[in-house]
Protein: Conserved oligomeric Golgi complex subunit 1
Amino acid sequence: MANVTNLLHINVDKLFEQCGVADIDLVHKRLQSEVELKREELRTMVGERYRDLLKAADTIGDMRNTAGSIIENVDTIQAACRKLNDHQLIGFRTDHQQRKLRKTTNDTFHAVIVQIKLLTSLPEMIWSAIDGEDFFVATQLFIFSRHISTGLQLDSNAALMAKFPVAKKQWAVLSQFFFTIKQNCSSCLEREDLQPEVAAKCLASLVLLESCQLDHILSVFVQMRLKAFAGVLAEGSRHEKVRDKILASLKLLMNTVELIHTCFVGVDGLLMRELNFITGENAQPTIGLIKSEDPKIIQTLPDIISRFRPRIQLEPLSDERVGKHSKIWLQNVEKIATNQLSKLMNLVPSIKVLHDIRKLSLTVAKKPESWSSTCAELSLQESLDFYSKFYQPLINTRVRTIIKQCWLETIAQNGDDVSKLLTMNASNKQLRDVKSYVWQESSEDVPLNLKDALDCANLASHQLLMKSRAFPPPLVELVSSLDSRLESLTKDVTTFLGASTSDEAQQLIEFYSDCSSESISQLLTTIKSADYERSPENYVLLARLLVAFKELCPALKKCLTPSQLSNAETLMPWQSDELPLDAKKDRWNNAAGLLDEESLAFWRLWLEQFVKKWPVLEGNVGYHTLLTEFPLWDTVTIEENDEQNQPVQSTIRVPALPSFPLQKLLHVIATLLNSLIPQTIPKRIISQILDLIGDRLLTHYQTLAASEFIQRNQNCSLQYYFDLKFIQLLFPVYREKKQLSDALVATYRTHIDPFDFDVFHAHVNANVKRAVTRMQHFFGVLLVNGEPVLGGSAGTTTTKATGGQDRNPNILALASNSASETWFPLLPIVTKEATAAQGSAGLSQEATKVVKVADEKQKQPGGRAPPRDNQAPPKARESSREPPTPSSSSAVT
Structure:
């Protein structure tokens, strides 16, 4: 085995791993020998250091034994002296004195025995009274036991008491009832439902136990009632529901006022009556409470025991002291209400629960007839109302908080719904292709009965109306979800207003309307700050969503309209619609205007990207422009007399349609707008589109006007002159820039020969009107007023031709009783005869025009007609379509 040098640093694990059993046993023996050696050293060190202390301890022990023996010897001497004294007086005693002494000794002995018997019986009696919650009787029995125990301890016959040590032990048991009774009385005074009789007995018990004055007891009682009030509001209360805690606390406050008045006010207060009943001159002795003992045995008790009753000197309680303690109690109640009651009120989850609490609180807080006099005697306000003072402000504050919380939750939920809607905008067919959804006929478009058709309360259920407004089902579902949440909140607020006073209702409705106005702004801010793809489709969807909020959320209007928060029969004066707009702040119109403005803002964002999809107008022109961008011109044959007054025929070519780039631009814009259901686009946006179109066209034609090719080519100038006149006539909004456009028209007119223009002018104007009449229906979406610019000849003829057949107006049914009935009826079949008749009527309006020149003196050299500003257009005999000649020569042949 390895030589171990330091046993204190042995590693046990390594020892068992490296050594055998014999080696380990050897190490163990060495450790034991070391321990014994150290023990001997310790004994030696202690004996040498504390030798004096040990000797002193032995001396003290000897002194104790000596003192004990001395005391025993003294007792023996006293006994011997007493015996000697008795022996010397034997001859001087009489029998009467012996009998009297013997009788006194026996009576004293029996009295002590009975008292000890009472002490042993009283604990059970006191416990029975405590279990029966008769603390006043328990207090009297305890005081009686204390009186008996004190008398026994002060008895001069120590020898007799030495024989009964149980008396001292029994008082040790009885003394604990002081704290038990006091604790139970305090617990009883902290109860919620405390009767005046019970309170008076408990207070009288405390007075007897502590031998205190009424002022101190009133202070203690006030503190206990405050503790009870705080305990009801605490989490550990026996009431689980917040409503029950609030009602119990209000009932406790009402009960406390009655208790203070009943127990402490006046000389005949209930507390004084209870004390006088046991301490007065005519009061019965306390021994009368003990019913279980034999009366003969009770007679052996001395008078000081048998006639005992509690005694206490009390000073009357003045009204000023009562009023002072009452005010202190009310101040502390206010502090507790500010802290605990407000926290408890914040736990109320809904307005419905608050309404129930208020309704039940008004019942609990109903004042008795003597309430005013009671408060006056307690130096409190005669009109003291705990509900109005502590509970009503907290309830009103909590209602406002719940309204704010509901709005915040609604805004958050709506923000999530909007994000989901924007996410599925690209995948949902109804959102992606609104045009197909709108024009797809469904059996659910028409309500099945007239009642549903005329129901304006639920517009979201009218499928055809939703299609006309371009509101797809996912969008309608989102708006309906918001409306249902606001409807539930408004319904709760309306219910809460039912039991409110006019002032409370006015303040709450004003707050609700103001909160709703602020929440709408927050709602719009949340929508605008949402994380979504900035695409034109999302902009359009958000713009329509904001409009749907205004049109499909009747609950939103209720939130902002005070007159709609109550029934018409029960309107308050402040809810009248006759008030000026300044009084109501016109919240709904402001909110509706805000929704419209934000919707227009999204439309403007869409417009910024929409303009990028327009085709680019080419500014470079040349001969290829005449071949590729100009449509066929009309060829007009005119007839006039020469110098010999002989008829001479000539032909001219005039533009009949606007140029192809202009048609393409308008066609692309109209097609893109048609895919968005153009009737749902705001007119202000359409006006902005027209302004952008006008600005782009003016810029384009100004660029063309500066081209040398255009200035040298009369045909190009004439075609662009036609385009400008077409634009001026087609778009009335464009007339707002009439001065600029007229100047541009005049510029192109200067590039045309005056004599030729005088001949072309009437024909060009006629073709412009004819082109507008034909094409205005294709570009009708760009017409702001939604009405045709001109009533064309073809349209007039058709109306006349079919006027006899369409005498009755077309009617669409509001409701259908058949699920298979279609909304739009089939179109009538048109016969060839009717078509031919209408065609001939239309052609009759386009007869050939021929121009005759009567006076050959008015002819100008070169065969050109002079200017004719006030003359009718020449009559044409033949009209045909030919392309313009790509040259700068005159168009007259």
Notes: Strands lie at 633-641, 647-655, 876-882. The longest strand covers residues 633-641. The chain has a mean pLDDT of 78. The two ends are 142 Å apart (CA to CA).
